[in-house]
Write a structure and sequence with these properties.
The structure is a homodimer of 444-residue chains. Chain A is of the alpha+beta class and 444 residues long. Chain A folds into two domains: 300 residues, 2-methylcitrate dehydratase PrpD; 120 residues, 60s Ribosomal Protein L30, Chain: A. In chain A, 51% of the residues lie in helices and 7% in strands. In chain A, the strands form two sheets. Chain A has a four-stranded mixed sheet. Chain A has a two-stranded antiparallel sheet with strand order 1-2. Chains A and B meet through α3, α8, α9 and α10 of A and α3, α8, α9 and α10 of B.
Amino acid sequence: MSQKGITERIAGFAVGADGADFPENAKAVARGSMLDWSAVMLAGLDEPVSRMVRQMVGEDGGTPEASVFGLDGKRPARAAALANGAASHALDYDDTHFAYVGHPSVAVLPAALAIAEKKRASGADLLEAFLVGVETACRVGGFLGSSHYQHGFHQTATSGSFGATAAAARLMGLSQEQTRHALGLAATRASGLKSQFGTMGKPFHAGIAAANGVEAATLASFGFISRPDGIECEQGFAETHVGAANRDALADLGRTFRFENVSYKYHACCHGTHAVLEALALIGNEPDFDAGAVSGVTIHVNPRWLRVCDIAEPETGLEAKFSYTLTAAMALAGVDTAALATFDDAICQRPDLVRLRDMVTVVGDDAITDTAAAVQVQLASGAMLAGGFDLDDAVPLAVQQDKLRAKAASLVGDAVADGLWRIISELENRPAAELVEALGGRRR
Amino acid sequence: MSQKGITERIAGFAVGADGADFPENAKAVARGSMLDWSAVMLAGLDEPVSRMVRQMVGEDGGTPEASVFGLDGKRPARAAALANGAASHALDYDDTHFAYVGHPSVAVLPAALAIAEKKRASGADLLEAFLVGVETACRVGGFLGSSHYQHGFHQTATSGSFGATAAAARLMGLSQEQTRHALGLAATRASGLKSQFGTMGKPFHAGIAAANGVEAATLASFGFISRPDGIECEQGFAETHVGAANRDALADLGRTFRFENVSYKYHACCHGTHAVLEALALIGNEPDFDAGAVSGVTIHVNPRWLRVCDIAEPETGLEAKFSYTLTAAMALAGVDTAALATFDDAICQRPDLVRLRDMVTVVGDDAITDTAAAVQVQLASGAMLAGGFDLDDAVPLAVQQDKLRAKAASLVGDAVADGLWRIISELENRPAAELVEALGGRRR
């Protein structure tokens, strides 16, 4: 790290970096995350937390600046960021960055999208601001480190606030000095506790972070004076929030994008089942595979997951999400595990799945990491099919985008998913408003 | 502390306590704080931080629920709480509770007033909710303790969020269960760092806390589920924010009101000068005292203040605020040190004050606490007048209210101050809207 403090470095990157220098692969990953965010946000609009936050901003009303998806008309950008952020994390089905342990897109994109719509920004500006924002979240998250997370802070909310601020500052055309004050304001506004996991507080955190970003950038644009070194100063955000102050977190800032390693969820069930489902899908998707010919299945996973998602005979849709046996049966039978609607009570009774389910043996195996799985499928013919998968393995971009498009189609239907991708894949040649309209925002 | 956790205890107090049981003295102190808050808020409306937050909520617009003082028309209650909270702490001239190290009224009253206006509450309900809110801030502040403050958190913002939530929950008629979730939501939303002191971030904290309270209570009224033990649970607010979890902080909750010990600032200059000014005013206010007959002044203060407010020959209004010599001269000459306008550059050159100023000797004295001062005034006649004052000494209620009325008159003029006091002193027989109207809120 140079002599400059992190707040100054991030501010310089946020509003000073030339988007023309951003690597094409980083922009491509950002486009994939935009599609994924769009689909999980739309699919999450009817969740209780989404409805409640939308009710609040709906009753508050206000100047029509940005779309609150699920409401008619527009609302102030700050309100749109709050509501759209909460909705997009409601299903907990959005992207994850394991290195900083947070969900970058749900905190940043709602802020960027709201300001882009308000400011009638180009799609290119939206994409660059989004990328700057998620990269800021990853870098600040890395600076805070695992000590921050282990102490009980939810990085999606805390680092996410800085990411949302960076994105908003760039789209609003703030100076570097104003951006430092915006980040300093985010330092005293950022909050969010892991102890809210399992409650509506968790998805609300994404909205909080996004709204914090819009608010901080807006006030800074008026000349608001905060701490221009608010992250790293004595008793600043990092010190008070048990940040590790990792010195290498800013290495190559602006040249490399750590966000490129972001991960996606492709199944609407517990993350602990995903490696198994990927491994079995590789077998089940073979053209000549016949689930009716299976006579036994053995899956090996890290033992920590046995306490999380090993319900042997699930009876409800919710229990099904935490069942290795039934989700394994689904993967072999070609059931769409990306679709939310798959996980209902009825599927727990489907005879062909129950038959497969009862053939599954789950083995805890310390030799397997918690992102991996090994599977063996025994056929009645006596043949044995074996495979494995590690969620940590890099996925080729084209494969990733195909999987994201398939997931989006499962969530919102082929037509909507295709329409969204058509715009996002060409976002740099279109106005940001086209994405807003495709997401259902209406002009008033 | 009983077996119940603090979140449950506070919720029970906030919405379950019968206002008829509240001690008359506590209500009288609350009325004094309401007058003081009103005057410092009105006097702070033109400060830059007030204007900027008002600009943001003004541009956001929205449903006319509650008055944003300084703006025409009403705005959503959440926005009014944010703007009015920031304005009321802009001058840093509001009440202080030393036991919990925070400013209770600026976090709580903006929330209570906004909800009371929205809900057309009675003045009695407003007064009770305000008292419940400030008492909650004091109790949660005591629970978190000095470890929380020393670590870098600003109690006005953090404990204030819980106080604002309690007040809003009571005025909105939430159930105890809903109030627990509202407090749990405040636990993941509360923020505010001492490292912002000296910036606009500090006054903004009061607005943040007030708005957090309105938001948390509003969402909880829709059924929002958070942690019903969010303050004390594992990795909850207290544990993550270095709270001491003081077990005695809830003793006699609902029967005694720690808020009764709140302190006020009566001089528009550095807090370090206040004990001196009170001691000298006791001498200077004697009917036959003649400042022209003074030939020497010696003041004894705790040595820590010599690094803070001992500018011997101030040349600007700002320097005058940090000058023992000149403020002492003002007190002897009968200058109104409560008025903001007193502290301009011109007063530094007033000949009678400069003559007195140059006679003042300031002595650091370890035997004197940092809330006290001892003074000696030498007269040309050879007589010596001696006195002292300790800001920690209890002030009789009638004296306190007279001083608060005089301060309010200095800040907003006799007519406005009298009008405010007429309403506040009889608040239990009037609708809350009358106070709002007296503060300049207009009906739309």
